[in-house]
């Protein structure tokens, strides 16, 4: 006679080793995620919400829809800020690229004392921003300023130029100071990229009969292009969001000749119109998003 066992089979383990490993990984990532949500996501979403309210200091404000955006779009200062921000970003980045690339190619050569020269070129970037731009403000002073003194003593120009107080010179003065402060970042980034280019590529190009220009255009530029794209993206975002270089030199003047988005938002904060100031910042989001998407697409195309 066959006996059928009525004993239940051994219970299955509900949580295997793989689940515990995933749980441990989530536990390690959780503090970082919470930190990002608290320091980035919440202020970002809150600023967008505030831009749709009439909030002022001391009150929570009421939802008013797109009225802040409509008001800004109807002011001449807002359109001046758009135009000036675009001009400063484009002109500054082009000049920083040219200067940074040229100096990186120079220092990349086997020249005597290039280590000291390399360190000297990083001084503008190492200097605190407010110190750098206050120094430039002193140089631009119409009476006793260093630039006017040099022009007068060398005989290049006998008059006095109010570099920061004249519409025709204010923007150029801000751009020059911004380029001086920011070109070392381009220089050190491109120099690092140049040092990573394999020498075999240049040797193969020489064997193929390529001259100096052909080696630069067909070997150097394609090799350092990813770094240039990333540097352009970062520099554009920093310049568009930059506050010190305009505020310390011109405060957006004269007559909105150098007004940019960050200074316009700061004026909204000064007048306690928090909702309007937040709307200025939100207006910048599409522009910065386009820059990020464009740079990312270029990088992805190159990788493919």
Structure description:
The protein is mainly α. It is built from 13 helices and no strands. The longest helix has 34 residues, at 17-50. It is flat, with a radius of gyration of 28 Å. The mean pLDDT is 87.
Beta strands, count: 0
The percent range for strand residues is under 5%
Class by alpha and beta content: mainly alpha
Poorly predicted ranges: none
What is the share of helical residues? over 70%
Any idea what the radius of gyration is? 28 Å
Average per-residue pLDDT, rounded, comes to: 87
Order of helices and strands: HHHHHHHHHHHHH
Terminal CA distance: 72 Å
Largest sheet: none
* Coarse shape: flat
Q: Count the DSSP helices.
A: 13
Give a quick set of tags describing it:
304 residues, mainly alpha, flat, 71% helix, 13 helices
Summarize the structure.
71% of the residues lie in helices and 0% in strands. By secondary structure, it is mainly α.
Topology of helices and strands:
Blueprint: H1 17-50, H2 67-73, H3 76-108, H4 114-121, H5 123-126, H6 129-139, H7 146-154, H8 167-195, H9 199-207, H10 212-240, H11 244-247, H12 261-270, H13 274-303
Helix pairs in contact: 3-8, 3-10, 8-10, 10-13, 12-13
């Amino acid at each position: 006679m066959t006996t059928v066992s009525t004993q239940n089979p051994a219970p299955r383990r509900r949580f295997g080793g793989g689940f515990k490993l995933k749980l441990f990984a989530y536990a390690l990532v959780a503090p970082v995620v919470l930190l990002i949500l608290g320091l980035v996501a919440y202020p970002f979403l809150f600023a967008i919400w505030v831009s749709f309210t009439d909030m002022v200091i001391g009150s929570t404000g009421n939802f008013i829809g797109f009225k802040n955006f409509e008001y800004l779009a109807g002011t001449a200062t807002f359109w001046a800020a758009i135009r000036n921000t675009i001009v400063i970003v484009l002109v500054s980045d082009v000049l920083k690229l040219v200067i940074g690339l040229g100096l990186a190619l120079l220092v990349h050569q086997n020249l005597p004392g290039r280590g000291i020269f390399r360190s000297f070129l990083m001084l503008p970037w190492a200097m605190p921003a407010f110190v750098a731009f206050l120094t430039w403000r002193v140089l631009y002073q119409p009476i006793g300023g260093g630039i006017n003194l040099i022009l007068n003593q060398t005989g290049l120009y006998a008059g006095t130029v109010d570099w920061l107080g004249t519409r025709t010179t204010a923007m150029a003065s801000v751009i020059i100071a911004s380029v001086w402060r920011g070109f070392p970042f381009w220089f050190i980034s491109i120099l690092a990229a140049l040092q990573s280019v394999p020498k075999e590529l240049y040797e193969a190009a020489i064997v193929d009969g390529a001259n100096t220009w052909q080696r630069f255009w067909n070997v150097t530029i394609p090799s350092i292009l990813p770094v240039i794209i990333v540097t352009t993206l970062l520099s554009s975002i920093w310049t568009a969001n930059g506050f010190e270089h305009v505020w310390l030199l011109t405060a957006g003047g004269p007559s909105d000749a150098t007004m940019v988005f960050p200074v316009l938002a700061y004026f909204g904060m000064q007048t306690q119109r928090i909702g309007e100031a937040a709307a200025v910042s939100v207006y910048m989001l599409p522009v910065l998003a386009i820059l990020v998407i464009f740079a990312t697409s270029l990088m992805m195309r190159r990788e493919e």
